[in-house]
Amino acid sequence: MAVITEDDLIASIAEGLQYISYFHPPDFIRAMGQAWEREQNPGAKQAMAQILVNSRMCALGRRPICQDTGAANIHVKMGVQAQTNFKRSLQEICDEGTRQGYLRDSNPLRASVVVDPFGERKNSGDNTPCMLTVELVAGDKIDVEVAAKGGGSENKSKFTTLNPSGNVADWVVETVETLGAGWCPPGILGIGIGGNADKVMALAKASLSEPIDLAELMRRGPSNKIEELRLEIADRVNALGIGAQGLGGVTTVLDVKIKTFPTHAASLPVGLIPNCAATRHIHFTLDGSGPATFTPPDLADWPEILLDQASSHARRIDLDNLTDDIVDTFEPGETLLLSGTLYTGRDAAHKRMIDMLDRGEPLPVDLKGKAIYYVGPVDAVGDEVIGPAGPTTSTRMDKFTDRILGDTGLKLMVGKAERGDAALDAIAKHKAAYLIAVGGAAYLVSKAIKAAKPIAFQDLGMEAIYELRVEDMPVNVGVDTKGNSIHKTGPLKWKRLESV
User: Is the Cα torsion angle 271, 242, 393, 448 positive or negative in sign?
Assistant: First the structure.
């Protein structure tokens, strides 16, 4: 019998992680393309267009779809009769595959895993350890599902235990309505039902790798209770009007996937895990004949979209000459093209700035009248100015917002998803504004960055403060100087009350 080697598994994992960093699954592209065609909200349609154009650019350029290249989720189904030469633990082998996949010189992927979650949170530097789950199954092969799950969508995972007579659809719809846009819709909802607390979340995660077939299911109609539930949840969630990036629109989910398992008679566990617009997963099988090979998707799967036409109504803004009068004209949902100086700064940089302000120390950068971008980019390669540089979830900066705006005179913040009430109050108080860059369009955004240099906190790695020079960087106004938020008004406008 053929022997499956450590080297074959390592090489296959490494190549799989590279492959999914720049190739969306074709079923996702088709579903997103169909959603783009039927979208009625211009802002949401423009966001989907950016996601699709970004995806095609990444497929051609072999660079990451999103700057958050995710934690490596690896599920191994080990055939009990499989012959291997493994000497190390499966965790060690899969970690080595992850390490090689994330540290490849031609396409380095951002390391986001911290090894001490409750202490110093020091980055491992190579995105290990991977999140490994193992299943022993019949057969003599090894089946592997490799996925890269970003923090924005993973952070929105939810679990509950309903009474056996509880309504799963009601809980899912009510929960999704509270998630905000940090999971970068439109995407997929993975739902597990049954088992226990750990089993049901594994079911939800596994369901996200199933083929997208909601359009086909709608055409042929449901044939069982699970398919009926999928259709009900999809219709009711889309009826919420959340839309792409939370801007309001007709499509929030591209599919709803459900996996079930027997459970205790007194329980009805339900797990919910959303998958974002950077859906990334691939499956391969090892049989002893060598490492897996992966065939690039057909570029014909991507729709032809001209962003120049889609953004022809956008207003150009000079970041180096911002005035209160200019910022005060911004309207929620409006599309802007930013040019000029843009600073970067995420959680760690904000905390360090607050600590410096507390000690009465001057900050290393003058933010008065300037703009800051919540981003942790991928390392540049070749002649790139910067690697893929999409926005991170802005709510993590909410607790710093009032102090930063008040003490520095910062005028604009750029990120993704909604802001909380405290941040909205601070924005209105200081007559600032919040802008949205599209999550899931990191490579496209990076092409608007013409120069980049670190200027402070370099020890923070991807969380250092950079000075960027941007040209025509596309954004939408999320919150105006009065504290009005598109993430509140947009979904209300597009909500279908009769279907909720």
Answer: positive
pLDDT < 50 stretches in the chain: 309-310, 499-500
> What percentage of residues in the chain have a pLDDT greater than 70?
98
Q: What is the pLDDT of residue 131?
A: 98
CA 229 to chain centre: 26
- pTM of the prediction? 0.91
Q: How many Å apart are CA 201 and CA 491, to the nearest integer?
A: 28
Identify the CATH number of the domain defined by range 151-277: 3.30.1330
Residue 307 confidence (pLDDT): 63
* Predicted pLDDT at 461: 84
Contact, 194 vs 229, CB < 8 A? no
- CA 80 – CA 377 distance, rounded (Å): 42
Backbone φ and ψ of 45, nearest 5°: -65, -40
> What are the residue ranges of CATH 3.30.1330 in the chain?
151-277
Active-site residue, from 75, 281, 350, 430: 350
What is the biggest distance separating any 2 CA atoms in the chain, rounded to whole angstroms? 75
What pLDDT, on a 0 to 100 scale, did the predictor assign at position 500? 44
Candidates 1.50.10.10, 3.20.130.10, 3.30.70.270, 3.40.50.300; correct CATH number of 314-491? 3.20.130.10
Neighbours of 75 (CB within 10 A): 20
The strand pair at 371-373 and 71-79 is best described as unpaired
Beta bridge partners of 451: 469
pLDDT of amino acid 497: 65
Tell me, yes or no, if 487 is annotated catalytic.
Answer: no
